[in-house]
Amino acid sequence: MTRFDPDSPLVKRVQPSPNHGSRKGMKPSAIILHYTEMRTVDAALAHLCNPKAAVSAHYVIDEDGAIFQLVPEAQRAWHAGVSNWCCEADMNSASIGIEIQNGGAKFGAPAYPGAQIDALIGLCRDIQKRHAIPSKNILGHSDIAPGRKADPGEKFPWDRLAAAGVGLYVPPQPIAGDEGLKRGDEGAAVWDLQRKLLAYGYGVDVTGLYDERTEAVVTAFQRHFRPARVDGRADRSTFDTLRDVLAEAPDD
After folding, report:
1. pLDDT below 70 — which residues of the chain?
2. Per residue, what are the HEC states of 111-124?
């Protein structure tokens, strides 16, 4: 791919990736946050620009806050894979992907540096201004690919982003001693849980059976909104936190 002008004035360097395609007439309606799961940003950039890897993202943010753009926002980067949000299955075409340099669980689950999060907040604000992306559609890869992806992980500071006006977050409700719903359970409570998760945007079927998919979606929800215990069981804390999230979710 030839060099292009950056979409954001916050970009430090354009490093074109050949791994992209047409959005097929779709406009970005979500921002998807990933961690690179690599030791260094140089390794991540090399991978995302390697045609044999067949993966990419629009942006990469280094630990020091430096922002690199790999794919123009008008193009479809290959970052989401098999995914779903609000019944949209082509999330590559419907989103802008941001890779955050972080080793993830593979490299000890390091914390995200403050300068990096500041840069991410600024970039998300800039993207939102240009594309009118709803708050609830600033998501982790794990939100759109439950059971398959875990990034940006339990240590990601969703609360700090929300305090800066980026994304949606509510304080998680306290964890009590109840066991909660688990795989194999069925009935009205499971149906209610699935209906509420679907209403927020998660890809789950409303069947009344707490199946493997439901467990994966609950795990993704907990990772984003109740990271103190991520176990896939829908306990009272999970239900109450989901209630609060739905109450805060705007209709935009």
Report:
1. 1, 251-252
2. CCCHHHHHHHHHHH
Nearest to 120 by CA among 223, 8, 40, 23: 8
Catalytic residue among 37, 73, 88, 99: 99
**186 is an active site residue:** no
- Domain at 13-163, CATH class: alpha beta
Using CA atoms, how far apart are residues 218 and 87, in angstroms rounded to an integer?
17
The amino acid at 134? P
Q: Residue length, the chain?
A: 252
Span 113-142, pLDDT tens digits:
999 999 999 999 999 999 999 999 999 999
Cβ(7)–Cβ(72) under 8 Å?
Answer: yes
* Angstrom distances, CA of residue 248 to CA of 35, 75, 158, 200: 26, 32, 15, 11
Listing DSSP states for 82-105 in one string gives S--BTTB--HHHHEEEEEE---GG
How many other C-beta atoms lie within 10 A of the C-beta of residue 184?
11
Which residue from 246, 189, 197, 195 is spatially nearest to 218, judged by alpha carbons?
197
Nearest alpha-carbon partner for 28 in 122, 144, 161, 134:
134
Domain definitions of the chain by residue range: 13-163, 188-248
Measured distance CA(250)–CA(58) in Å, rounded? 26
At the topology level of CATH, where does 188-248 sit?
Answer: Muramoyl-pentapeptide Carboxypeptidase; domain 1 (1.10.101)
3-state secondary structure of 30: strand
Residue 99: strand pairing partners: 34, 60
